[in-house]
Amino acid sequence: MGMSTFLGPTLKFQYCYSCGYQKAFQDYKTVINEKYPEVIVEGENYNPPDYYALIARTLGVLKLLVIMCILSGTNILGQSEPSWWKWCVENKLYSCMMLFFLSNVIEMQLMSSGAFEITFNDVPVWSKLETGRIPQAAELFQIIDNHLQFQTKVELKPGFAK
């Protein structure tokens, strides 16, 4: 259990940093802190699956190795050079830039989860991965109100053993 569970209700956001959802999180945090000062709002990056991260890292290493081979003119295949490899060696700057940018696009695609997940006291209340969209502010307020109302009813029930 985290320390925040003893301080009050916690609303936790997990978002895709590379998708630009950090700004949406900051906006929601500001509005929620104004309307619900008792709610602790936390946010963190939603990491992609481990195998995507591994593929992206491997691609990054391979990219650098191929760029070094192009710059040094090394024949990586050990056989007669194909025409595309000769072109890469003859046009080092263009081929290295093209390889660098194309592999970066693929790496970014692998690392982008598209997530905007929300939990209230560790209970999932919204998932962009499931719904395909970020909640509107009114929807989020209704979710918070419902959970706070339920929490208050449970805490104020007379004769309930604690």
Automatic annotation (TrEMBL):
Keywords linked to the UniProt accession: Redox-active center, Signal
GO molecular function: thioredoxin-disulfide reductase (NADPH) activity
Superkingdom of the source species: Eukaryota
Amino-acid biosynthesis among keywords: no
Pfam families, alphabetized: Rdx (PF10262)
GO CC list: endoplasmic reticulum membrane
SUPFAM superfamilies from the UniProt entry: Thioredoxin-like
Entry's Gene Ontology BP terms: cell redox homeostasis
Alphabetical list of InterPro entries matching this protein: Selenoprotein_Rdx-typ (IPR011893), Selenoprotein_T (IPR019389), Thioredoxin-like_sf (IPR036249)
Protein name: Selenoprotein T
Organism, as annotated: Diploptera punctata (Pacific beetle cockroach)
